[in-house]
Amino acid sequence: MDIRKAILKNPRKIEFLLWLYNKFVGGNYIKGKWENEVIIRASKLKRTKIIVNGKNNKIFIDDFCRLSHCKIYIAGNNNVIHLSKKTAFVETEFHVEDDHNQITIGHHTSVAGKTHFAAIEGTKIIVGEDCMFSSDIHFRTGDSHAIVDSVGKRINHSEDIVLGNHVWIGTKVMCLKGVFVPSNCIVGAGTLLVKKYEGEYSIYAGTPAQQIKTNINWTRER
């Protein structure tokens, strides 16, 4: 068995070395972990900030993740951010406000750059396995401020966002609250996602998004 296979089989063999890199070499910054749980397994962080204001929050970064120039920010209590194994992020921000929110990114998902995930008011952002994000992308479960009707009743409550497995998100996509994208789909560049979409193996594009092609799939290879 070669060294790479041995490490993949038992990542604990390099976890301490990566801890040393993350703490003393990587230029990372962590604040607020004493009243919260920040678990970083055998993963590499570079120029990444983790700032937690609140209690009983949990950040879990699983084995073989790579974060470069990222930011994880929580303001609230009882929130969860879970980055699964072999995920990769460049210039990605995870922003959580209020209580009982969750952001989960599935195994082997990658983000190429300048992407913002924001969950507020007890909502979830769930991204499946083997998804691929380009850059300059925004996912937001809420509007940040209240919209009310003529009698002052709020009408713009926050909602979850869910992506299936193996979804490719193109550059400059905006994903708003309440969106569901099925597995094995492509979301075209500059698309505005605004609702739950039904068809797998489809391309969605436009502002707002429409199903423009079916019976397709995609691969990371050129």
Q: How many structural domains does the protein architecture include?
A: 1
Helix content: under 10%
Rg calc: 18 Å
Alpha-carbon distance between the two ends: 31 Å
CATH superfamily: Hexapeptide repeat proteins
CATH architecture: 3 Solenoid
In short:
9% of the residues lie in helices and 41% in strands.
Descriptive account of the structure:
By secondary structure, the protein is mostly beta strands. It has one domain (3-145, 154-214): UDP N-Acetylglucosamine Acyltransferase, domain 1 (3 Solenoid). It is 9% helix and 41% strand. It contains 2 helices and 22 strands. The strands form 2 sheets. The protein has a 15-stranded mixed beta sheet that branches. Strands 2-5-8-11-13-15-18 form a 7-stranded parallel beta sheet, with no helix packed on it. The longest helix is centred in the first third of the chain and has 14 residues, at 12-25. The radius of gyration is 18 Å and the shape is globular.
Features of the shown structure:
22 strands; 2 helices; seven-stranded parallel β-sheet; 15-stranded mixed β-sheet; UDP N-Acetylglucosamine Acyltransferase, domain 1; 222 residues; single chain; mainly beta
